[in-house]
Amino acid sequence: MTDPSIGYPVISIENALRLGSFYQKQIDASTVPLRQLSTPKVLTDFYRLQPMGGVTFDWDQLEELASDFFTRTRKLKYSEAQTEMATTLREIVQLFPPLVVQDLDFWRYLSLVTFRNFVFKFKNRMAPVDFLGSNSQVERARLIEPLRMACRLAEEANDPYLTIISDVSTREGLSSDVRDSYISNIIRPEWAKHGKVGRAFIDAALAEPPVLDDGRKGTTKADRKMNLFQSRVSALQNNVLFPYLDQSEAAELFLTVKEI
Amino acid sequence: MSLRNEGIALRPFSGVDHLEGVLAENFRVVVTASGKREEILAGDSYFFDKEELLRCGLDIELTNVDAIKSAAAPLCQSDDDADWVIVAEDGVRSAIRGSQVLASGPISDIPASIQLAKPVEANYGKVMGHPHASRTVSLYLVYNKSIPTEVSTKPRVKGAILASASVSLAVQPSNEALQPKHLTEELKREWKLSAETWFHFKAQSELLECESLEEAFKFYVDKDILDAYPGASKEYRQLFELQLFSLVITQVVTSVHKALSTPGGELEKGANSAVVRLFNSIFSNSRTLMKEWPTRLLDDPDRLLSEALAAGGSSKTILRILQLEDPNEQEVNND
After folding, report:
1. Does some domain include residue B330?
2. Domain total of chain B
3. Which residue from A81, B88, B91, B94 puts its CA 20 to 30 A from B126's CA?
4. Contact at 8 Å (CB) between B281 and B318?
5. pTM of the predicted model as reported, rounded to 2 decimal places
6. B224-283 residues touching A, CB cutoff 8 A
């Protein structure tokens, strides 16, 4: 028998689509919302082990992190569970080398096996866009959102930057559900991939007086003040090399365009 | 003259264009992969197999550092006011999409040769330490001080970009591999092919404009042969892959030659043509062929075909064999 520690698990796009369709049939066949998805009897037909240069893949740690995540999030709303997922993925990124965590096929495995019960729950579906069923729209996959949030903001598990926008938003009498704010101001913008500039942006945005996105019914684009600030920061990247700046230097620079 | 926006105002920095030109003129990235050494110029791309990308040697060489320093001088108050920084940035198909600062230092001490990665050893870091996506490697010259002034025609913000030069280190996207489709009995009847036909190729008339290989052409292989492929011996599979690669490339060369030879047929090198990417990938180990293949294809298609088939090494990467299975046959695991 092959030693499972010789490689890390990966699922190709073709097999991801097959497995996704297998799960979708379970969802469609159920008359009540499912709590869990059952894997195929022969799961090994869908994934393979990608060698990782002699380094052992720590399956036990992965299973432990997943089990801990599902225990912690049993009663949470999706936006809260997503923050918890960012914490878990931060730990996964620290646990495995870039060879593993930069591989989209590894994230297809996590989406369709380890964390399948997180991926399908939000919209009670298993659509290709949710589990990286193609190489386009990668940033919209259910696990890639919290992964990039973690990599751009968190220096450690439970990093306060993962929740600070929600905390300030609540304090200011706005919604605590700030998932859209994280997506449009941190996860999607190209500039936020550099070093600690994502943290610097939050420092500048929440410095008194804080600018926040108000996405409540009846509000307009002009009420998304953090997003307007983000577009000004984005314009700076053509002229200033963001990865050259440390967090406080970047925050100081961003403050210069906070109020125009 | 370039305009640099450092915030609210648009500021023209005289000398920026000149510095950018001098940097581009003197900038080379030397790639060492599979025992070969290639020079890439600013703005160029180099295509790798995944394993090559992970283990390539990379050196930035600056042919005239004094010229670069002189061109930067008018943008600074003193020689100590600018730094050089090398940044690697992930392409769209990486999971994390991050950046990595590879090296930096004062421009007064900028070396003529900067080693970024040693050949054969696995490259290191968030961006360089994986082969799953293309990446950009850029050398930036930046201003390194912040001067509190509202009136200046020179850079005054720390990190202000004075000039940059980049190359793209690209990997053949996996979904651009050539994948055969099943040549079924129904298709043979529909296309009036003999029962013995095991291979069939169909190209779009506008194949040069297509953005994906899937749109540009399709090729079909007898279903029984494809079904037998996974269980065949390794030697047989390798021979079959090579034979299939040769047939497909022969057909592609013929189709592209035909398209280029028709009135109005021309190759937009800058366009996002999948066929252009395919040829660039096949000839990725030869700078001359990467540059000249369109002309050679028009002038002497037979010779270009021989060169494509002899390019070697790339056939396995470029060709993928479908292994289709019926997902409905899986049982559910309720454990």
Report:
1. no
2. 2
3. A81
4. yes
5. 0.74
6. none
